[in-house]
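Input.
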Amino acid sequence: MVNYKDLREWIDQAKAIGELAIVEGADVKYEIGAVCQLSAKNQGPAVLHQKIKGYRPNYRVITNMLSNPRTLDLTFGLPVEYTIKDIVEDLRKRITEWKRDAANFPPAVVDAAPILENVVEGDAIDLNAFPVPLWHELDGGPYIGTADSWITRDPDTGQINCGTYRAQLHDATTVGMMVTHGHHGRLHRQKYFDRGQPCPAVLVVGQDPLLYANSASPISVDISELNYVGAIRGSPVPVIQGRTTGLPIPANADIAIEGFVDPVARKKEGRFGEWQGYYAGDVTPQPFLKAVNLYYRNDPILSGAPPAKPPYGDADLWKSVIYSALLYNDLSGNVPGIKGVWRPKVGGAYYLQVISIKQQYGGHATHAGLAAASCTSGAFSGRYTVVVDDDIDPYDLEDVMWAVCTRSLPTDTDIIKKPRGSHSDPMFHRTPETAGLDSTNPRAIIYAVKPYEWRQDFAPVNIASEELRKEVLARWKDNFEGRLKTI
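Output.
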């Protein structure tokens, strides 16, 4: 059960379970980003930066909120001893309930709220007062929005969306709004632009990890993330109404920037180190938010989750977990015998997806592979889909690659041409003239399974039985001074 109301209570609870590191005196130029990467690589704790070099000592930055299983468990109110497999299995069941119940938990408008402790208007706004990191060494500037929630409204339906899109800090009153094709925030924005109207928007950069996690997740266009988070909590999310746009702003957030995105004006945006592990594209003209109102709490905390080469990316683990759970659900409703699904961090939770099945009929592996590569949750940038037998642990890449090496033939791989890809895919050569074009890329389905027709005659595996391994571990583990961790 989720029992924290905001980022600050979450920080207190993370500290209580030994999942918070406090760093004082770090530099926003590269250093905070490098610390974040090291913690993510080692599945380390959340990192709270204080007394940041060159800024007010009470202006803080939090990173690595979702970088290890224990902080993920804390965020979603799960038992903190849950493993990654446990989290995927649990969340995939709860997702259906949350979708069903979301309509019953619209946000609750309140008049008094922590976010109103400081309200600054117009030209008095100075976003440079916040310690905004220059996350990567080749970034085109500091990015205030990495673990953020962009709040927009569909002008036709009134539907509210919260999405995580990168936001470069341009100057004291403007931030970039870089949104790729197909995302709900971009669809909302374009509707205003098509009418020649500015798009009202709010950029929240200090929300609790639960809202951030779900802003960064693929939730159906007809469900507001605020409602969805309310369903997870079992109570409505308290919000204030933006003084100029009327948009809902989480009442307990630390920092929120309200304003408008002009349909014509552009500022140069990028480069930026993206989730694939590369600097994506080049500097391009992009829309930006002009701040009208700035809201922030006393002693504000800026939330950050910079992407990086997996597994150094802050949000790599969370993305792997949620996308695995979603794909598991999509497949389980259409393909029998699904025993496990994992989209590991090495592929940024997109490029590699592993499907474990208990084979029940000829063509079962093909059925599972094609479904995984083309269903809603698996269709985007899924470069490699690997289907394995149920004796293979999909969460163990060494086990998976052993199956690929010993149970697959290159001649049996299926190739799918021109499915949906990512604009920031490093395998596409982009120029300023082609940067806006849609990307499609081929993908492969690798069948690393025993041939169904003679699976019973397949060579047996030469490893001690699981029961024997458990017995031996229990008997002799003390002789190894804690070095034997798994069976």
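The first strand starts at residue 20 and ends at 24.
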